[in-house]
Amino acid sequence: MLKQQERFTTKGLVYIAIDRTSWGAINILMVSLIYDKRAMPIYWEILDKKGSSNLEEQQRVLGKILKVLSGHKIVVLGDREFCSVSLGKWLQKQSLYFYLRQKKVQMSRQKKEFIKK
Predict the structure, then answer these.
(1) Whole-angstrom Cα distance, residue 86 to residue 88?
(2) How far apart are CA 61 and CA 100, in angstroms?
(3) Of 2, 76, 107, 112, which has the fewest beta carbons less than 10 angstroms from its beta carbon?
(4) Cα–Cα–Cα angle for 25, 68, 20, nearest 5°?
(5) How far apart are CA 77 and CA 70, in angstroms?
(6) Do residues 63 and 76 lie in contact, with contact meaning Cβ atoms separated by under 8 Å?
(7) Cα(99)–Cα(91) distance, rounded to whole angstroms?
(8) Sign of CA dihedral 54, 42, 64, 77
(9) How far apart are CA 32 and CA 74, in angstroms?
(10) What are the record keywords, sorted (predicted)?
């Protein structure tokens, strides 16, 4: 039998996804635990507005989960809504790994050269 903390880790990493969805008139920002190719919602907030979430809201929902998962190596996954330099810097400051999907046309810099992706 696995120890509790080993159940949801893959090679010592805990994968969580941040996502937002509209369900009718309800706008939900959630964090899910990724396990066995499934996303299980573990925290969510209903946003009191329409449209995308902002940095403050994203930090707030992720912060709730970081308290619970402290002591684990965490990888945060996010789609294009969460692809901001500010969020990336904040995640880095929290010592988190992250994969944030880039928009179709994105400029990135490698060794002082710009590359169109």
Answers:
(1) 5
(2) 16
(3) 112
(4) 20
(5) 17
(6) no
(7) 10
(8) negative
(9) 12
(10) Membrane, Transmembrane, Transmembrane helix
Residue type, 91: L
pLDDT at 102: 72
Q: Which residues contact 113 (CB under 8 A, 6 or more apart)?
A: none
pTM listed for this prediction: 0.78
88: phi > 0 → left, psi -120 to 50 → alpha, else beta; which? alpha
Interatomic CA distance for residues 29 and 88, integer angstroms: 18
CB distance 100 to 78 below 8 Å = yes
pLDDT digits (tens, 9 = 90+) for 70-104: 889 999 999 988 988 899 999 999 999 998 887 66
The amino acid occupying position 2 is L
Domain 4-116 is in which class?
Answer: alpha beta
**What's the sign of the alpha-carbon dihedral 23, 48, 79, 92?**
negative
What are 18's two structure tokens? 């941040």
Residue type, 71: G
Residue given tokens 């080993």 in the structure block: 6
